[in-house]
Amino acid sequence: MNKYLKTVLIVLLLVVVIGGAGIGYNYLSKNYKDKQKDEKTSVETTTEEITEDNKIENTDDNTVGKSETEAAAKEGNKEDKTEAGSGSDEQAATAPDFKFLNMDGEEVHLSDYFGKPVVLNFWATWCGPCQMEMPYFDTAYKKYSEDINFLFIDLTDGSRDTVESAKAFVDDKGFSFPIGFDTEYDGAYTYAVSSIPMTFFIDKDGVIQAYQIGTIDEGVLNEQLELLVK
Fold first, then answer.
1. Do 56 and 40 sit in the same domain of this protein?
2. At what angle do helices 128-144 and 218-229 cross, to 10 degrees?
3. Among 2, 113, 153, 165, which is most exposed with the fewest C-beta within 10 angstroms?
């Protein structure tokens, strides 16, 4: 009988331990999922808060791979995520700032280029749609470079794109515009870049006037540039 009771007690103990472990796992899993959901919401806030009135159109785009989106989810600049370009001076806000490397390897910020209108474009050498629109931007750069700052920010992940390979790509194509390097994915995080190309049109005061996800048409590009220099 004592042996039987001992066996029963052991079984009951195992049931309690297993049940407790299951409850603990469910609790931790729920907290983890809630945390991931909060982080995802925070990352997506930037582009969601730019109103639909600012969006030019959706076209075919190139989705950034898993490794890039995971890298973009790092801690970064989280302030100034207020609504932009809503048509009210009180509600309009400057484009969120971020840091990147210029052609000379110097760390610079988007805000360094305010004072003139800015065309901000996120791209990568492996992105087919990015390559399709680059000739349009090269022509536009030659025409508007004195009046507009063009920032072509490469998603420099260190594997598919490096500083050296991005420079070589632009040189081989014969493009004249300068490029920047988002080596720490500060720009990708700040602007919640999940698909490229992605282009923002920012006025001289640093306010986003329009944006587009996907390849931009040459005519639409020129229309937006004319609006920026007015």
1. no
2. 40
3. 2
